[in-house]
Amino acid sequence: MEWRTRWHITIRWDRADNSPAGVTVVERVADTPAELRRLVQRARADPHVVAFPYRQVRELVGDEPQECHNGHGYAGG
Question: N or C end of the chain, less CB within 10 A?
Answer without folding.
Answer: C
